[in-house]
Amino acid sequence: MPFVNIKITRDGVTPEKKAEVIRGVTKLLVDVLGKNPATTMVLIEEVETDNWGVAGETVTVRRKLGK
Q: How many CA atoms are closer than 13 Å to the CA of 35, on its beta-carbon side?
C-alpha cells in the first residue's frame, strides 16, 4: 500500500488542483510501479509560508524579497 505525502505552501491552491495532483500521483504509481490505485494513498499537507524555510529565510521573507 503506497503512501505519498506531499507538502506545499499554503498559497490558495484550489481543491480542483489538489484533486488533479492526487489523480496524477496515483496514475504515476500505477504506470511506473504497477501499484493498485485502490490502495494508494496520497496526502497533501499545506504549510504556512512562515513555517517553511529555505537558505535560512522563511518563504514569506524570500517572496517579499523576490527570491
A: 18
Q: Residue 10's pLDDT is what?
A: 92
- The model carries a pTM of 0.86
2 is catalytic: yes
Residues 6+ apart with CB under 8 A from 23: none
Query: Residue 10: CA atoms inside 13 Å, Cβ hemisphere, count?
Result: 7
C-alpha cell at 50: 512562515
Catalytic one of 1, 2, 27, 53: 2
Average pLDDT for 43-58:
97
Sign of CA dihedral 13, 17, 19, 22: negative
